[in-house]
Amino acid sequence: MKDIVLSVRNLTVSFKTHGGLVQAVRNVSFDLQQGETLAIVGESGSGKSVTSKAIMGLLTPNAIIEKGEIIYNDVNLVTLNESKYSKYRGADLAMVFQDPMTSLNPVMTIGEQITESLMNNLNFTKEQAKARSLELISLVGIDNPDKRYKQYPHQFSGGMRQRIVIAIALSCNPKILICDEPTTALDVTTQAQILELIKNLQKQLGVSVIFITHDLGVVANMSDRVAVMYAGKIVEIGTVEDVYYDPKHPYTWGLLASIPAFQAKGVELYAIPGAPPQMINPPKGDAFALRSDWSMKVDFEYQPPMFKVSETHYASTWLLHPKAPKVERPAQLQERINQLMHKGGKA
Amino acid sequence: MARYIGKRVLQMALTLFLIMTVLFILLKVTPGSPFTNPRISAETRAILEAKYGLDKPILVQYVIYLGKLAQFDFGESIIIIKNFPVTKMIFEPLAITIRLGLIALALGTSIGIFLGALAALNRNKFWDHFNTIIAVIGVSVPSFVIATILLLLRKEFPIVPIIFNKADPAKGISLLSEIHSMTLPILSLTFGVVATISRYMRTELVEVYNSDYILLARAKGLNKRQVFTKHALRNALIPIITVMGPMLVALITGSTVVERFFGVPGLALLTIKSINVKDTFVTLGAELLYSAMFVVTMLFVDIAYGIVDPRIRLIGGSKND
């Protein structure tokens, strides 16, 4: 077992709204291991971004952390006040945001925005910070660092800006890098380049990454482990192999079945029926029960606990209960898994 | 940049020329004459009009005036101070009006930015509501009502002078004591500025705080103070700078009521007087000066805008590279 750098325990986050309390994250627990990439996948509103913002301590003022702990270096970050938290940000925890077009300050040069972090967190002098910034600009694959250093964000393309944001995030050698859908706002070619960059930098620097996305294709490529979130809960967590080749939760089945595939020409693309529940009044039992073809009576009454599938693989569905009837994965999905495994085996 | 400014100056000259032409025609076609005093006989009037060239056709008068303007001669006063050059006559009141306007603007903007920031940082709390009340009063209550209230307050608490005290080194009256004597007119003008600026500031700052780059600044590990001074403030000030230019012009041209109310011998008082007695060249000179101030202020605002917002600067720059 590798060292655990971050441990999230029973995290529950709600938002105060006019309609009532929206339960965005419910009892989420996971560990982040040293040097690994943990992907958190889920659809919009599943709580993945809120989880990441909670770790960074960047939740909006109307958010309440109702319970839970976020343990980093034996410190429960949840209990910190703003000024203490800000000491962790940048230096230990760093984040790359979704939209590079808006995440850089339009009236500051790129150089100022990178050096600021270095001077603030590592007490670099101006000259040291500049030298390091130029290195970082090159490191994220941008040519002419001297020229780029003096330019403003609007002189950069979206992909370039995201590279700069990554440079800022990595500037102070953080232990944990959170990427919140870093490629969603980019076109597909740029997306591939940015993913490649994050992957390489992660290997090079040994930083642990939490990678938030709704794109399962990206996950397979990027991560070591996957956590699938639905309605504010982690419904399945395991290594990429566990979740892709041996998914246990009907929601994961649905997600995997809805990835378009080249071979499946002429076959209608699968879509999970229905819509996610309103989180002002979350369902009593399993939140996915209403949309699932495999739901049982118990699903509507009690929330399923995390069942252990293997040392690395856990899923939260009553189907894993010893008394539950044995069900098979949908045939179409099983076929695809077989194909994937076959391909994987060959490679 | 130099080419851009050069182009703008040419445009400004054209604008002023057009304004001058329209004003000249308007002033000439409106009925009345500087010599309407019943004690002036028809013969005397004819002689006087001939002396000042008022008997010539409008077009001829216009060409003569143009010729004078080309030499920076704004003509002479006919009535207010007989045969006195308008240029000299306007200078002193203008200085007073500009002083009044600039001080009110500086004071109002500083207080407005402070109150607006306070409101934005304490949303839906005391300072926010306080700011809203100030803004509603400041925008809806005209400056002469505020002037009246100030005057009443002054009656109860006679802590500031009430009579305008012109700076005059010969009499040992310093500029500072002149400004001191303008406290009430300055305050009456300041109120409206505070109202507008604080509203802008609050709205902008709230918007800036919702932006992703503030989130990134926080994610970098900057503390609250650093996020505010290094990231939020500068972005929020951009729109403030745009409203400051027109506001200064509005203060200078709009100080008429306040100047009359407190008897400040500014440009506005002179303009009104010259219109009343139909002292055409004084009116023309004053109005032209107002227009010139307006276009020059707008130029400065555009240049200042480019300085704080690199996006605008560089677009302007690349066009002229």
Task: Summarize the structure in words.
- The complex is a heterodimer of chains A (about 350) and B (about 325).
- With about 350 residues, chain A is α/β, with parallel strands linked by helices.
- Chain A folds into 2 domains: about 5-230, Rossmann fold; about 245-310 and about 320-345, no CATH class.
- Chain A is built from 11 helices and 12 strands.
- In chain A, the strands form 2 sheets. An 8-stranded mixed β-sheet of chain A has the order 6-7-8-3-9-10-12-11, sandwiched between helices. In chain A, strands 2-1-4-5 form a 4-stranded antiparallel β-sheet, covered by helices on one side.
- The longest helix of chain A is centred in the middle third of the chain and has 18 residues, at about 190-205.
- Chain A is globular, with a radius of gyration of 21 Å.
- Chain A starts with a strand and ends with a helix.
- Chain B is mostly helical.
- Chain B has a domain at about 95-280: MetI-like (MetI-like fold).
- Chain B is about 75% helix and about 0% strand.
- Chain B is built from 14 helices and no strands.
- In chain B, helix 4 crosses helix 8, helix 4 packs parallel to helix 13 and helix 13 (about 280-310) packs across helix 14 (about 310-320).
- Chain B is globular.
- In chain B, about 35% of the residues are buried.
- Residues about 315-320 of chain B have low confidence and may be disordered.
- Chains A and B meet through helix 2, helix 3 and helix 6 of A and helix 9, helix 10 and helix 14 of B.
As laid out across the biggest beta sheet of chain A, the strand order is 6-7-8-3-9-10-12-11
Overall 3D geometry of chain A?
globular
Q: Would you list the SSEs of chain A in sequence order as H and E?
A: EEEHEEHEHHHHEHEHEEHHEEH
Tell me the span between the first and last alpha carbons of chain A: 27 Å
Uncertain segments of chain B of ≥5 residues (pLDDT<50)? 316-321
CATH architecture term of the domain at 97-278 in chain B: Orthogonal Bundle
Number of domains of chain A: 2
Q: What's the overall geometry of chain B? A: globular
Helix content of chain B: over 70%
Oligomeric description of these chains: heterodimer
Annotation, overall tally of beta strands of chain A: 12
> Number of helical runs of chain B?
14
Q: CATH superfamily assignment of the domain at 97-278 in chain B?
A: MetI-like
Mean pLDDT of chain A: 90
Distance between the termini of chain B: 8 Å
Portion of residues within helices of chain A: 25-40%
Largest interface, Cβ cutoff 8 Å: A-B, 33 and 24 residues
The tally of strands of chain B reads 0
- Report the sheet with the most strands of chain A, covering strand number, pairing sense and barrel closure: 8 strands, mixed
- Sequence of secondary-structure elements of chain B: HHHHHHHHHHHHHH
